[in-house]
Amino acid sequence: GAGVSQSPSNKVTEKGKDVELRCDPISGHTALYWYRQRLGQGLEFLIYFQGNSAPDKSGLPSDRFSAERTGESVSTLTIQRTQQEDSAVYLCASSLMASSETQYFGPGTRLLVL
Amino acid sequence: DQQVKQNSPSLSVQEGRISILNCDYTNSMFDYFLWYKKYPAEGPTFLISISSIKDKNEDGRFTVFLNKSAKHLSLHIVPSQPGDSAVYFCAASSDSGTYKYIFGTGTRLKVLA
Hints:
heterodimer, A: mainly beta, globular, B: mainly beta, five-stranded antiparallel β-sheet
């Protein structure tokens, strides 16, 4: 079956521009997660969705970051007024339920802010 | 403050030998640990996990050992194969937030043919 997909796979943008990153989770997975991996660092939790609600936004680094999920399916992570320190690989994962042991990851979106 | 640490950024092992990847954590509330494997340009894939009620979990060539008193876990791969060459991430979670995995920085394993 289809896994988690993300688009675009790569994005180069200029400082100050807004970007939208998309995640399509595995069908039927109610939980969806966004992570960020900056160069030389581990995966950093950003936000988690249960259905269309985000009970935990504690990982979002600033108010320039927002995310939404619709139809208990697709999620969009938006970064406004991008900064160079936003350059990273943004990974999306989904799991059957929030308490599920295994999160299935997408391939990531590599964002470069010039 | 890095709660999950993988102090070896890279490791090279000869094919057929044992690979040992190490992970240390600082939060004593962590009670569930996982290992993920990541190939270039792909997302991490789940490999093996262990609950804090156990000290060993085995799945084929992969075994994870947990030493709670030392706050240390390790992944053993034996025998190592060239296809095992990847970046391995250790992750941990606590009961209060099972969804919020804290990941280490990864160890790049290279298995030499």
